[in-house]
Amino acid sequence: MAKVELRDLVKTYHEFHAVDHVSMNIEHGEFVALVGPSGCGKTTTLNLIAGLIEQTSGEIWIGDRQVNDLDPKDRDIAMVFQNYALYPNKTVFKNLAFPLTMRKLPRAEIDRKVREAAKALDIEPLLERLPRDLSGGQQQRVALGRALVRSPAAFLMDEPLSNLDAKLRVQMRLELKRFHQDLGATIIYVTHDQLEAVTMADRMAVMNRGVLQQYDTPARVFAEPANMFVASFVGSPSMNLLPGQIVTRGAEVSVRGTDGWTVPLSAANARRALSASRSEVVLGARHGAVRLYQQEVADAVPGRVYTVEPTGDITYAYVSLGGTTLVVSVAPSTVLSPDCPVWLAFDQEKLHLFDGTTQQALAAA
After folding, report:
1. CATH number of the domain encompassing residue 345
2. Does residue 364 belong to any structural domain of this protein?
């Protein structure tokens, strides 16, 4: 397996920047997930690495080779697609053997490599079956096996689990993670499902409108989002974002919303807020960073329950603060009804603050 490096990579279509000056290092044996909404540039980035489309500018390195001008077959990569792309009239064995046959390897070596891949993926009993006789999960394993037999420098995977049902996707996430751990494979994985990225990847690259927004471990991206887009995209439910203005009264600093609510800030958060480029800031709070009370308490913001969403082990309460709705997690035993008054208190240790002009996170002072 090899390191993959993107240096100031650009892909334009006339005036549109599909990939906008993206630089990224994927280390040897690392699992990196590219995530973002539809049209963010993640699949285009993968196709640029594969050589399926030509970059406008920038450099692509696989191992110690710059591969900008190499054909896909010469880049030493293997792709796994969401539709599996198996040959319907060939057995599993012949599907696995096909890339080796095209390279004209000796028959004995082909047989050995196919059986090794089949054993690694636990599909040995399926070798004489046709794709139509396999389940979706089995077909995906065959697609992985066909990539594995080539012993590539890197695996490129484009939403390989999107055609599976929910239960099978969970199972295949585990299989892919084990596949990566056992082989030490370099994997670049495109998905629109952030849960796949968080559970499988060593690092995740969050993209939007062709721009790399943040590239870090899933834990760091969740806990320390670089900007408001990352904060709203990563995490389910999404982070609550409350725009407001800084208000100072003596040594006290608060944020006041247009709906009249006021949130006092701790000394540390006050210093962060005052570092904003203007007086407009945005408060960010995950559902677990907001405490809901059913009676008035000091420094809590009054609101009204809009609706309640039980999920079994946790209940989400949607609370209206004027024209803004926040989601708060409460114990399933909490009894709430629409339009009942509640009060919300924010955990200052878990509060995020963003510059209302640049939308960038305000760092601790």
Report:
1. 2.40.50.140
2. no
- The tokens for 255 are 């944020």
Looking at the fold, whether 224 and 245 belong to one and the same domain comes out as no
Asked whether residue 361 is domain-assigned, the answer is no
pLDDT in tens, 196-206: 999 999 999 99
Are 173 and 219 in a shared domain? yes
Q: Report pTM.
A: 0.89
154 lies in the same domain as 270: no
Mean pLDDT of the chain: 92
Q: What is the pLDDT of residues 239-255, one digit of tens each?
A: 999 999 999 998 899 99
Q: What is the pLDDT of residues 65-107, one digit of tens each?
A: 999 999 998 999 998 887 778 899 999 999 999 989 988 899 9
244 lies in which domain range?
237-355
Considering the domain architecture, whether residues 228 and 101 belong to the same structural domain is answered as yes
- In the chain, pLDDT over 70 holds for what percent of residues? 99
| Same-domain check for residues 211 and 250 | no
